[in-house]
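Support reply, case 0932

Customer input (verbatim):
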Amino acid sequence: MGGIRFLLICLVLATAVKSSGQEENTIKWDPEYKLRWSDFKARPQENSPVAAITASGISYRFSAMESNGKMEVDCTIESFFYPGSSWYKPETANDIILSHEQLHFDISELFARKMRARVANYSFSSNVKAEMNQIYEQILKEMRVFQKRYDEETNFSREVAIQVEWTNKIAKTLQTME
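Our regenerated output:
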């Protein structure tokens, strides 16, 4: 095998969706694109107390090459919205709720950027797959806590002033992480 081994690993993982991932239509996060109610394709859960659900998450894929005992990792990390798993109740839909749902998607992008930074600053061993998965799982854990706090503090968009604060905070944070 010589001094250079090549290891190619492609992983596509997404939170909130247990289906076949990329086969489902997705919307990749883009700062210029804002969600519309027409993007929410799933049937609403009539018994749910919430007005809408946004299914969004992070996916990654990478390749790694070991050269002279050092792992070089090339990684792509993206955030996606999953229309087929996202829904809303038309009778309660309004612009405030839509902006609340958009921010859930924006938070997914925020954590995709956090993962990019962690991967860029990580010194990988030859166990890249396990280490990448560990970083991913930690990011997902942090994102779930953050998303829950967002819903609680805004009371699911009902606290409009707090919703505006969150929107401004996330927008500013995304700008600083570009």
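We compared this against your earlier run and they match. Two observations from our side: The chain has three helices and six strands. The chain has one domain: 4-176. Please reopen the case if you see a mismatch on your end.
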